[in-house]
Sequence to fold (970 residues):
Amino acid sequence: MRAGQSSKCASEAFFAALLLFLASPCLSAGKTARGSAAQTSQPGEECLACHGEKSLTTARAGKTVSLFVDAKKFSASIHGSLGCTGCHADLAGKDLPHETPLAKVNCGTCHPSEMEQHARSLHGKAIARGDPLAPHCVDCHGNHDILPVKDSRSSVAPLKIPFVCGRCHQEGTPVQRNRPIHQDNILENFSESIHGQGLLKKGLVVAPSCASCHTAHLILPHTDPASSIARRNIAATCTKCHAEIEAVHRKIIKGALWEKEVNVLPACVDCHQPHKIRKVFYTQGMADADCLRCHENERLKRTRDGVSLYVRAAELEKSRHAKIACSQCHSEVNASHVRPCETITHEVDCSSCHDEIGRQYLSSTHGQLLSKKDPNAPSCKECHGNHAVLGRQDPQSPTFSINIPKLCARCHREGQKAAVRYTGRQHEIIEHYTESIHGKGLLKSGLTVTATCTSCHTAHRVLPRSDPESSVNSNKVPATCGQCHHGIQEQFDNSIHAKRLAKSGKELPVCSDCHTAHSIRRTDENSFRLDIMDKCGRCHEEIAKTYFDTYHGKVSRLGYTKTAKCYDCHGSHDVLPVADPRSHLSRANVAATCQKCHAGATRRFAGYLTHATHHDPRKYPLLFYTFWGMTALLVGTFVLSGIHTLLWLPRAFQMRRELRAAEAEKTDQPPAASPETPESAPEKENSDA
Amino acid sequence: MPEGGSEKKQFVRFTRLHRVMHAGMIVSFMSLALTGLTLKFSYTGWAAVLSRLLGGFETAGYIHRSAAVVMFGIFIAHLVDLYRLKSREYGSWRALLLGPSTMLPTRKDLAELTATLKWFVGRGPRPAYGRWTYWEKFDYFAVFWGIAIIGSTGLTLWFPVFFTRLLPGSFINVATIIHSDEALLATGFIFTVHFFNTHLRPEKFPMDISIFTGRVPLAELKRDKPREYEALVASGKLEEKMEEAYPPIVIRAIRVFAWMALAVGFSIVLWILYAMLFAYR
Fold:
């Protein structure tokens, strides 16, 4: 019964609202009607003697104002039992007819808290300022005909509130025109919103009206932190009705954080605009089945360019977005159209849910290219796919760790579109990576925790090495590698090669300078161990050269690793100056370092000059003079013996000729010359002589 | 070579032990030179190739040290042989060291050196050399010197931990320089001057194999060592030092070995020249 009554009232109210919109004169007419409606009263017979007369008027500020009180309405009102003097307290005991004008009725006498709230509110402050447009109690509640809020005929019943507020807050009113109110078409938008439709169209008295969000009396601008619609409080206000909405939104924004970090996370109104709720951001009633009615068709093509619009429902069901409706991604659809998708003008914007990732992506090289509308730019779907999108934990996903090199290779393999644009020094990246320790770990051993492309380059913030923000920029490389090799990073950060410690202005090495970027090898591979010496020598030129003059260096140079290399003595990641007591080569540690290979080595043994050169007389005089002494001995011996030999040569040739001649003679006269060899005879004579 | 094995009997100049020791010397010296020079000239591509051929630096190291032990052994064997020679033939060190066949340099050697130099420049006859010429004595003492210098520094490098109990660590560096430069002198000298004296001298070209056979034709003895020949004739001991020549097959085998040693030696000389002149750093 009551429900029927209220729905009747609602439909009445709706018509009233329509009238309000259509004809502004109606408003002033309404005002006059209200004025005249307050002209009857019952209890104070004395009062009614005059005020029962409809013609009773007075002049106020040059205007004629009716003073009629409708006795019937007053006695039916909630204040009916109070009599006239209950409110017009200044009349008590006065002679009638009384003097005019009367003092203003103070509702706060009985309603102190409402009065106090109102005084603090935007409206109350406007009254205090003397703003002629400021609303007093009577402007919303009426005067002699006030009914309880629960009475559907009350001017502040839920269904009527939009109109009460709308009297001032609609387009064209002096308030809307002359006061700083930043929302447009408030009443219109509200009445079309889901809240407005619920309230006005469907007559749901529980649907929120203006006062539900703005409160009834303590209305404050959203910039005031105490306001119910301040950013800080908006979530609390909405959750008064939408109690479980946090859970619903958890995938988009962490619900629990709404109220804690109001400046970081979006408030409800960022998506669901005030007064226009639900109209803008998503569409009502779009079921996936509606979409699939057309998109199930394998031959469905876009007329513009013939791109297939076929959607495999099965694929979608298995995807990570299985529970996401079509329209949540394709948000531009409009359910009120026969073809809801005809309103779509843009590509799907993943960042509307994946907000942070979207921002990262836009700052990356990939995103920057997309912003420039570069045809080579990879968008989200290039890597993640579209309807079949799977999480990166799914082995079938192209973004599953083992599949990532293949994914990146699509563009970054030599000859492909990204590799062609690339001007840096890294080439055959994919091949090198595949052969590297990371590549083998990932692709051969199937270790999913092994570093893959995105581990170093990040997935969405991919930037060139030269960019200081890049994860592979030299100042970030140690931290990037340290994500996995944390222990090494700790050592490195305390080494002389770390930016923090090195006082030299020279460029410092980072992980990739020794280990390379893509062809990282096992450090126990001989080739790596030998190459590393050249790496040190790139900066430590002199010291590396002299190292190769010593036994260790010479053996290494021959291609063998079982002898001390740079890192065997200096350490690999924890390199420190020799003067540093923590260095492997400090006074206290050097003998132990030598003992790694030379069991029983002493401090004196460590006096071996591992970087000695015999070319520096000032630094190594002993070696210098030993070397030159030895050289002098060598040269002297060779010069003397050389001269001796050279002088001998002509005589030796002479002897050879004589021997040949003698032999020839012997063969000519075989019997004669046998015992006494002829060639010795002249020689003997010579020597005798 | 001219009067090969066809002569009935030849003069025995070197005992069997001498010959074995010389062959052992060749093998150990070549091994030491090859393995050592790979390290000295490690900056040449040749060194890396050779090091690999020799079985890697560790194996090369074992070869080097084994050869060094062999050479020390030969050196000691020679000293023992000298002692036995003294006891058997001379009776006293004095007789051995101051006799006509001494290896020690004498005033006569100095005279022969000046006479030889005169002969070289055509201002005198060729001297009548005795059992050992001055250049043979020089070669002989070069080995003594070399064993002492290279051997001692080599041991220092072999046992650095032990030696640095007595010496400062930088002496290892000094030892390295001495060892390697003295070895360079030894190899350079042996493979040029010594080779010339025995193989490349035009009248003996291409080689004199008496150190392997131990025998020289009498004519050659008369020509090269007339003083010794005459002394032998005078003492009547010549006949007891004459023995049958080796059969041709043995001679051929000896030649093959000698040629190999010669080839290795010359290759090493070329390598040294290349490393010193074109790749030095």
